[in-house]
Specification:
Layout (H helix, E strand, L loop, with lengths): L6 H6 L1 H11 L1 H11 L6 E5 L5 H6 L5 E6 L2 H14 L4 E5 L12 E7 L8 H11 E12 L6 H13 L20 H10 L2 E15 L2 H11 L1 H13 L4 H19 L4 E14 L1
Parallel strand pairs: 1-2, 1-4, 2-3, 4-5
Antiparallel strand pairs: 5-7, 6-7
Helix pairs in contact: 2-9, 7-11
């Protein structure tokens, strides 16, 4: 199992995440803001903000935004982005989603875009989100759907697993785990147990394109936290070190080209969007 609950994988990919995934995830952030019903003038919390995909968008409507993440290097990217965009109403906060450093009832809206799903203690994270919202405040949480609904993500996960012996189980079979909160019913249940009411879960997907598979794979190498964990494991376990990692990179790219060809690719990422009110 790939552990994404520590800061190291996210610090490692902060620059690539900002370059490739922040613009790619902008559509999801916009959809989440629209779904929330936020009009303007409210206090907003963005949990696991990363380089600020949602925080930067919502700042134009909110009176004040607290953007929290546990990765110092992600927050460095956010500070640069805020400066470049001349945004002055966003507070950058280093902190843990499972123990938010805010008083009760501090916010009108709280969001977590593909972040809370990786918390080791999600129950605590949901309770904390509820705690810092005023009664009747709105929470929006997103997670990826099942990999079978995101074919390209599924293909990469299977190819990476097949090529990397460090993620095989005891039987020798590749071990591709399910995604956290991929099941809409699970997402709904956990929000209710965290103290939310009127929970509704919907799905939305957005299309992306790359000129070829090789370009897409190279982007993944610098922006994917799971791949940064795989890289660290391969470098640490192999006496060949960097050579083993380069061989792995080449083999995966070859497998992807064999599956998809060398022509331009278009794909859609599907996500769950849960909206609820703090009870």
């Amino acid at each position: 199992m790939i552990d994404l609950s520590t800061t190291e994988p996210w610090d490692t990919v902060a620059s690539g995440f900002d370059e490739f995934l922040r613009p790619a995830f902008a559509s999801y952030a916009s959809h989440a803001i629209n779904l929330s019903g936020l009009v303007g003038g409210d206090r907003v919390l963005d949990i696991a903000t990363g380089p600020g995909t949602l925080a930067l968008q919502v700042a134009s409507s909110a009176s004040f935004v607290s953007a929290l993440d546990f990765s110092p290097l992600m927050l460095e990217r956010l500070r640069r982005n805020l400066q470049d965009a001349a945004v002055g109403n966003v507070e950058v906060v280093l902190g843990d989603a499972q123990a938010l450093p805010f008083a009760d009832c501090s916010f009108d809206y709280a969001f977590s875009m593909f972040g809370l799903m990786f918390c080791p203690d999600r129950a605590a994270a949901f309770r904390e989100m509820r705690r810092v919202l005023r009664p009747g405040g709105t929470g929006v949480v997103t997670s990826w759907t099942k990999r079978t609904q995101i074919p390209l993500m599924d293909l990469i996960a299977r190819v990476v697993s097949a090529r990397n012996p460090l993620v095989r189980d005891g039987s020798g079979e590749s071990n591709v785990p399910t995604l956290p909160l991929e099941n809409p019913n699970e997402l709904r249940r956990e929000m209710i147990e965290g103290g939310f009411r009127d929970v509704s879960v919907s799905q939305a997907s957005f299309e992306f394109s790359y000129p070829d598979v090789a370009t897409y794979w190279k982007a993944n190498l610098v922006c994917s936290a799971p791949l940064s964990v795989v890289k660290r494991a391969i470098l640490g376990e192999s006496s060949l070190g960097q050579a083993a990692w380069q061989a792995f990179v080449a083999e995966v790219e070859s497998d992807l080209v064999a599956e998809l060809g060398a022509s331009p690719i278009r794909y859609r990422w599907s996500a769950n969007f849960a909206r609820a009110e703090a009870s």
